[in-house]
Each structure stands twice: as structure tokens, then as C-alpha cells.
Amino acid sequence: MRTLIKNATVINEGEEYNATLLIEDETILAIYRNGETFPEDADDTVEAQGMYVLPGVIDDHVHMRDPGLTHKADMASETRAAVAGGVTSVMDMPNVLPQTTTISLWKDKMNMASNVCHANYAFYLGATNDNLNEIKQMDTSRIPALKMFMGSSTGGMLVDKENKLRQIFQECPSLIMAHCEDTVRINERMKEAKEKCGEDPSVEYHPWVRDDIACYQSTALAVRLAKESNARLHIAHITTERELSLLEKGEIDEKRITAEVCPQHLFYTDKDYQKLGSLIKSNPAIKSERDREALRNAAREGLIDVVGTDHAPHLLSEKEGGAAKAVSGMPIIQFSLPLMLTMADNGTMTLTRVVEMMCHNPARLFRIKRRGFIRPGYKADIVLVKKEAWVVDTRNILSKCGWSPLTGEQLNWRVMSTWCNGHKVFDGSNIDDSFIGQALEFGE
Q1: Among 16, 179, 371, 431, which has the minimal tally of Cβ within 10 Å of its Cβ?
Q2: 3-state secondary structure the chain
């Protein structure tokens, strides 16, 4: 099966140029720049004049809620939302029921995904205080990283003993991705907020409870342990200016310590709690305008490396309440690429930097084989987007929970089609539910 995508503007590897792509079966066969002769004998031809072709987005931070929490979301529903948003690969978190803290449970999730995921997929193994033997058995060609929760609200997955943390950093065979918030400080701040405001303080207290010091103290501990053991550390969803002092610029392939930022932390500030309330409650919390501007600068300049969504669906009923009672997390994966491209229009960063942070750098950081770039011989994971204004409403939403904090927002870019392994899985309106993605492979 040969497909031609003609006359597109390609954004890839720091360049923007006109080209025609030739796809054969699952693979990008050739790229013909403007003026070069290309074969016309394709089985299918897509006229992409006026559209941009990007590599498919690789989202390194997704909660699909499967198994055990499928009243909120599941693998099928959230990968449908993903491909509608131009995301062709998802990497799913272990805090489900049962928690993915053994190799056996990880294998169960892989088997489940092989029948239901409409995007390519991978699953983290989760760390606990007591599963070092499981961690040492990780197959690093199939498991992207170890996920470690160094913050509160994650139940039995909280790793809070420094001797256990040190052991994991010393003996983990893979990259470690850490959620960093200091539990002791958070608990003290929540107690103080409740004494002042009652059992469920307003959600506007959330960034006060989970403040920049709570983030910094935990991130500093993770960085120190990583440097002591020479481990590779990836800091999840960084939110504060203070934490940026712990990071260094450099090529992502050469760094031992890297960081992720979420679109919502580049878009919202604590002023938005007044309008959106607990809909934008997340852990770590959305913080001040000063923090947001510092994050934007760090993303532009290469201090922060990756954009991942922390896509975390909940029922609207579970989002009711304030800083104590409303659950944390929001669904964002379907709109992350259009939102980032819209922010690029407004000067947050360049289009090429958006592609670098959402496509190239996740592939480089996790050493994903043959994905994340538009290159001959790579898997044909690509997305066609067009600059076209539209407004998010509930009719657009494919996540099972059925809502988004972005409802009513105008976005300036629209996903016109998504191709996963050379197959058009989203045509701008409909999902091909017969398509099943592939397990991601990792290695040099």
C-alpha cells in the first residue's frame, strides 16, 4: 500500500519546508522537497496544500484509568481521544487498580492494550517502598521508565523512605520518572488551611497548600539522589520557577536529568481558579503568573525538555469541592497539540520548538525506536494540521468523562487527520475503530 501526501508544509527537525511524503505500508519511504520529482503511482493520494505535516505526538504522561477505574476512562476511549488530537503514541501511568507494580501486572496491561488501543502504547512500572526486586527485572526494551511518586495522594505507591529511594536510584536499570512534591509540607499546609477555612478550603488554596517550596524540596531530593547514583532522572510536570534552578541546558541525549512541562501549566495561572474552580485542580497545582512565565522561558530555551499532558480523566461529580475534597487531574490529551500550536501563535514558543518538545524529544529521551521524526525508514506516525479557528465544546470531546476545562476556548489549529503506522486512524471527523496500535520499542 503506497500513499502520497502532496504539497504539505513539513515541520520537522528544526526546519519548515514544502514537501511530498511517500508512505509504503507502515513506513515513510521517501521525502521529496519542493521541486523534486516524485512517483505518481500511489494507491492513495492526499492533497495537503495549505496543511502542515508534523510527526505524530508522543505523550509521555497519560492516565488511561485501565484497569480498575474505567468509570472515568479506559484504553479504548482515551486512545480515541489521543488520535483525534494528533497523538500517535501514549505512555500510561501505573496508578490504576491493581497498581502496576509487578512485572506480571505490567504484562496483563500489555495484553489488554494489544486488543483495544487505537494508538501505539507503552506502560510504566510503578515503584513502591517494597518492590525493588520487580524493578530490577524490568525489560528496558519494552518498559519506558520506572514511575516513582515522591508526593502525596497516591496511596500505596508513595515512596517516602530515603533509604528506599536511594536503593531504587542506585539499582533501577531504566530512566526514573518522578512526581516530586514534599508530603510533610503539603500535610502541614493543608492542616493550617483547614483550621482557617474549614474541612474543605476553597480550591484557590490549592496552590498555597502545594506550593513552590513543597515542589522544590522534593525535586531537590530527587536530583541529589540521581547525581549521587548517576541515575537518569526525568522530573514530571514541573510547575515552579524555583525548581528551574535545579536544571541545566544541553542536548537531551546527553543530559542525565531532564524535565517535563504540561500544556495546562503553560496556559493557566492561579487567577483562572476564580473562573474554572476545581476543573483545573491538578497535582502539582497550577501556580502564579510568574511561575508560568518562567516555565515558558525555560521551555523556549531548552531548560525544560518535553511536553506531556498528565492526561487524567475524572467524572465531573468527582471534581466537586475545593482544595481538600475535589479530586486532582484533568483530561487534556485531545486538545494538547492544537493548544500548544495556538500558544505558539501567541509567542510562547516557535512551531519548530513545539514539535521538538512533543515529538522529537520524547523519542530521544526514552530512546523510542523509529518514531518521533519524519525520516525515511521511520514508522509513518504523522499528523496533518491546518491553521483554522474553532471553539472547543462538549460535542468535540472523545474522552470518556465527557468534559474539558478548555470548553469555550478558541483554538487556532485543527487536526485534519492522524496517521499511525501508515494507517489513517482519524480523518478529521471519524475514528477507525478497527485500527489497533503497536507496542513501543525502546533502545539505542
Answers
A1: 16
A2: CEEEEEEEEEEECCEEEEEEEEEECCEEEEEEECCCCCCCCCCEEEECCCCEEEECEEEEEECCCCCCCCCCCCHHHHHHHHHHCCEEEEEECCCCCCCCCCHHHHHHHHHHHHHHCCCEEEECEECCCCCHHHHHCCCCCCCCCEEEEECCCCHHHECCCHHHHHHHHHHCCCCEEEEECCHHHHHHHHHHHHHHHCCCCCHHHHHHHCCHHHHHHHHHHHHHHHHHHCCCEEECCCCCCHHHHHCCCCCCCCCCEEEEECHHHHHCCHHHHHHHHHHHCCCCCCCCHHHHHHHHHHHHHCCCCEECCCECCCCHHHHCCCCCCCCCCECCHHHHHHHHHHHHHCCCCCHHHHHHHHHHHHHHHCCECCCCCCCCCCECCEEEEEEEEEECCHHHCCCCCCCCCCCCCEEEEEEEEEEECCEEEECCCCECCCCCCCECCECC
Q: With 90 as the cut, is the pLDDT of residue 151 above it?
A: no
38 and 156 together in one domain? no
The predicted model scores a pTM of: 0.98
Domain count, the chain: 2
Does a structural domain hold residue 437? no
Question: 42 and 101 share a domain?
Answer: no
24: domain CATH number is: 2.30.40.10
pLDDT tens profile 214-228: 999 999 999 999 999
Average pLDDT over every residue of 380-385: 98
The CATH number assigned to the domain holding 296 equals: 3.20.20.140
Task: Tell me the average pLDDT of the chain.
Answer: 96
Asked if residue 418 has pLDDT above 80, the reply is yes
Mean pLDDT of 241-265: 96
